[in-house]
Design brief:
This protein is an alpha/beta fold. The protein has nine helices and five strands, in the order E-H-E-H-H-H-E-H-H-E-H-H-E-H. Helix 5 packs antiparallel against helix 6 and helix 5 crosses helix 8. The structure holds thymidine-5'-diphosphate.
């Protein structure tokens, strides 16, 4: 199933999805659009996931896969969730969604569990996949000072390879109804934004 007003931005850490979400907010405002991210900032599952990501709470990789899926379920179906907003005609932009689990958790606990846990969630209308090498993306993150458990070059290389597989598999499913747009995320924020904006104009007539 496709959520027609749902748009997802994905890529390895440091790919620049959060910067683009900010730019979208500046351009589109909040009257007819909603901006969100996973792990969900305001949910208890999201807060717990942040403690796991910082390394404060060590868990088995499978446990993280379950928690990301639980957080996603609330993000979609909870009060003021994406499904409700989508049905009201509000454009919902999410920085990360199930593709993150299919890439990151596949890299930590194999493909089967994340696939199973995410198999029933709806797909977005558009997936923007930010392509960048881990070397370039990590150089951006290191500038921020705080690093999380996944922010290491070897791990991100593995994750990037998983992302490529995941995105290719969805691209092949032409009947899924989801448009996949690949973006060269090594370009400047303005150049990346113009690709996103053009796609939104074509899809939604903005
Ligand atoms: P990120 O999106 O980079 O947020 P911030 O910039 O605020 O740290 O961090 C979220 C991390 O969580 C990132 O390393 C990817 C990871 N993640 C998963 O492993 N699986 C998931 O399903 C999601 C949504 C995120």
């Amino acid at each position: 199933m496709i959520l027609q007003n749902f748009i997802v931005l994905e890529g390895i850490d440091g790919a620049g999805t959060s910067t683009q979400l900010k730019k979208l907010k500046e351009k589109l405002g909040t009257t007819r659009a909603f901006y969100t991210a996973e792990p969900v900032e305001t949910s208890e599952t999201g807060k717990f996931l942040r403690r796991i990501l910082s390394g404060e709470v060590p868990v088995h990789p499978g446990t993280a896969a379950f928690l990301f899926a639980a957080d996603r379920n609330e993000h979609l179906y909870g009060k003021d969730g994406i499904v409700q907003k989508d049905s009201e005609g509000i454009l919902c932009f999410s920085d990360r969604y199930l593709f993150s689990s299919l890439a990151y958790q596949a890299a930590t606990c194999g493909e089967d569990l994340p696939r199973l846990l995410n198999s029933t969630f709806p797909l977005p209308r558009i997936l923007f996949f930010f392509k960048i090498t881990p070397e370039v993306s990590l150089a951006r993150i290191t500038g921020r000072g705080v690093t999380e458990i996944y922010e290491k070059v070897d791990f991100l290389k593995k994750t990037e390879a998983e992302y490529e597989k995941v995105v290719a598999s969805f691209r092949e499913k032409a009947d899924s109804g989801m448009t996949v747009v690949e973006i060269d995320a090594s370009k400047s924020p303005d150049e990346v934004f113009s690709v996103i904006w053009k796609t939104l104009q074509e899809t939604y007539g903005l």
